[in-house]
Write a structure and sequence with these properties.
The chain is built from 3 helices and 3 strands. The chain is of the alpha/beta class. The chain has one domain. A 3-stranded parallel sheet has the order 2-1-3, with no helix packed on it. Strand 1, helix 2 and strand 2 form a beta-alpha-beta unit.
Length: 86
């Protein structure tokens, strides 16, 4: 019986984690206060980021995030991401 509770709890957690949206606060890039601990990370594709640049942003396409995640650790991040999925 305890195993069933555990499996049910684990299943509920996985369903919640994967299928319920996360609330993210959206702000204008002009309102971001830049200091030594703050980094703006632009996750858009290079051709989009070059066409519509954001001042002081670290352009890092999403595919490269795993490779460069150590450079981002310990900093306050502001993420710039596309509003569409491809």
């Amino acid at each position: 019986m305890n195993v069933l509770w555990f499996v049910g709890l684990l299943g509920s957690f996985l369903l919640y984690k994967n299928f319920f949206p996360t609330v993210v606060k959206c702000i204008s890039p002009d309102l971001i206060e830049i200091d030594e601990e703050t980094l703006i990370v632009d996750l858009r594709d290079y051709h989009i980021a070059a066409k519509f640049p954001i001042k002081e942003a670290f352009v890092l396409p999403f595919a490269y995030l795993k490779r460069y995640h150590k450079q981002l650790m310990g900093k306050k991040l502001h993420i710039v991401a596309p509003d569409t999925s491809s």
